[in-house]
Description:
Layout: H1 2-28, H2 38-57, H3 60-86, H4 92-95, H5 105-116, H6 135-161, H7 171-216, H8 235-251, H9 254-282, H10 294-311, H11 314-332
Helix pairs in contact: 1-7, 1-8, 1-9, 1-11, 2-7, 2-8, 3-6, 3-7, 5-9, 5-10, 6-7, 7-8, 9-10, 9-11
Amino acid sequence: MSFEVGWSLWLARLTSFAANSNLLLSYLAFFLPQAAGGVPRICILIFLPSILAIINIRGVSSGAIFTDVCAILKIAALFLFAIAGLAFVDWTRFSNFSITTNANWGGAILLVLYAFTGFESAVVPAAEVKNPRKAPGWALILALGICAAIYVAVQIVVVGTLPDPASSERPLADAAQKFFRPAGAGLISLLACVSVLGNLSGSALVAPRLTYAFAQRKDFPALFGKLHRTYGTPVTSIILFSAASSILAISGQFVWLAAVSVIARLTNYAVTCLALPLLRKRSSEPPPLKIPFGTVISLIATALCVWLFSQATWSDLRVFGLASLAGALLYLARPRS
């Protein structure tokens, strides 16, 4: 059970890497329209994970620095877009807003959740931060609050400036073209590419360490625990992630891959929410950060995860089920001694 939880986290990172690779091509097509399809698309989706794999095989520091720089540019781009775009919003578009009862709200919420996933990665190095018993919890709450505010502002700008945002392949660039003109749209597209590239770099850095950890704990074939002779990095795990992400990115589209990624993460979230009351009951020490009605919130969050599972399509659930079965087979191939 615990292995499948860890395996689903690896699957979530794999599918999000493939989904964001397709998203990167959408914005890259602003400069190179040929990148959106055909042989150029396939070549880019093979070349990109390969380059990131080489960077990470050569060491952690270079990949981490590149990810940090991209993250700073990403936040700056979103702030620039949101602050500048609010001045050009046509607020009358929101005055006639009405709720459509027959819309697929569950499917929409499932994809909205994709924008917030990944926050759980912040707790991985929690033992290395100051005041680790309390700081990570409040940091997560604060970071998610800031992200929500930025997302709402960006969404208002897109809906308030684009006539039909749902039909746009590059909504940020198309919206920026309305108030920044073509030069500004090109800048936003470039920053979007850098933003997504930073996300891909972070996934390429972290995800292979999961299968490496599986192998180190003898829950995975020993091959994936081997280190590079020169650089000391988990070379087999890095190559596995690079090859699998290329195959998925070439064969899938953004929305489908994002949905599968969310389903995989919901597995982690649901089990974590169920585990919290049990772990608190078993622990002899008081919890380091106790939120009022924590047990009730955990149960509500678990119910929300189950409801979101029910909103996914059978094809997405079938893909996740087959991927979980593949993980089980690899688990059975683990060392017995």
